[in-house]
Input
Amino acid sequence: MTSPLPDDRELVMRRISEALRLRRDHVEPHLDAATYRNLLPRIGDTLEERIEHFRLWSERLQTEFLVCSRTDLPEKLNELRQNHGWHRAACHGADLARQALSLCRLDSETTVRIDDAGIEPYDKDALETCDVSFTVCDALVAQTGSVLLTARSAGGRALSVLPPHHVVLANADQLVPDLPAAMTLIRERYGDAMPSLVTFHTGPSRTGDIERTIVLGAHGPKK
Output
């Protein structure tokens, strides 16, 4: 009498077990940024060209991109506050984020303040009621219109995704040309002490899961 053949599950598990017993040297992949740059849209060398490219992508992604001086910043922020009806706001410990919150002239009782890494306890229920969050970033990426954020630069994980509006403040020298440059910046800045979260935000949160209709703000900020 012959033994019954093992079922598919047993066969798969046996093969996995056999494969795990084999020792193999771990080979680090060689990432050549120059190779990837040849496959991606070329970005100009000047700051003006980078700004224009970022602006074009922002329009396509339905993102508001404003360029202004420190002198004009209060006026721009108050225009945004009035246009979007902000009443409650949240920010983290970065100087530029706190300045923006102050310039919006929102009552201190209607604001949520989070430490730089979002580690210290804060009122999560209050954060859910905020209309807008203010954060800084590690870089802006001209090539894709993206914002490069980390848990350290953006006040943890929740601040940049929970409120329906997210305002990112950056200086002109933070606008890098492309994704390889952004990743090089991250590796040089953090080395072996990478933050728990490294993410690119490219436009508002959107999904097409429901009847193939694009909906903004389903899994993060809608503006």
The chain has a mean pLDDT of 81. Strands lie at 89-91, 111-113, 132-135, 139-141, 146-150, 165-168, 175-176, 198-201, 206-207, 215-216. The chain has seven helices and ten strands.
